[in-house]
Design a protein that fits this description.
Structural class: alpha/beta
Order of helices and strands: EHEEEEHEEEH
Number of strands: 8
Shape: globular
Helix content: 10-25%
Number of domains: 2
Number of helices: 3
CATH architecture of the largest domain: 2-Layer Sandwich
Amino acid sequence: MSDRSPIMSLYPRLAVRGADAAIAFYVQAFGAELVERYAAPDGTVVHAMLRAGPVRWAVKDADEYDPAPGEGGHSAILALDVTDAHAVAGRLEAAGATVRFPVAVQPYGERSGRLTDPFGHQWMVSQQLEVLTPDEVQARTDAMFAEGT
C-alpha cells in the first residue's frame, strides 16, 4: 500500500431542514463565518460553507436523498477540540442546543460533554487536560466501569 493517500481534505456536510436557520445557529454558537452560500431558484440552500478558526463544515437543506436526523436520516457525532469546553458548551446551549451529557472530566484525559443542536446533530466538545498513553486510558476506563458495578 502506498504512503500517499488521494484524499486532499475532509469536512462534514450537514443536511438539515432549514439550512439558513442552521447557519445562523452556527454563527451564534461557534462564532462561525459564512464563507460561501449557494441556493436553488426556490431559495433552498444547496451548499453553504462555514468556518470557525481552522475548522470548516458545510450545511445544506435536506432533500429526498438526505433526509435530516429525526426524519429518517442519520446524524454523526462531530468531535470538536476546543480550548475551553465549558465556554463552548455554554455558547451552544445559549444558542438552543440540548445537553446530552454535561461537560465533565473524562478518564481519557479530557474535559468533554455532548450537545445536540436544534437540527439533530450531536457535537462533542473536548478540551485536552493531559496526555495519556493508550494503556493509561484503558486502565482509567476499566476503573470507571468497575465503579459502576
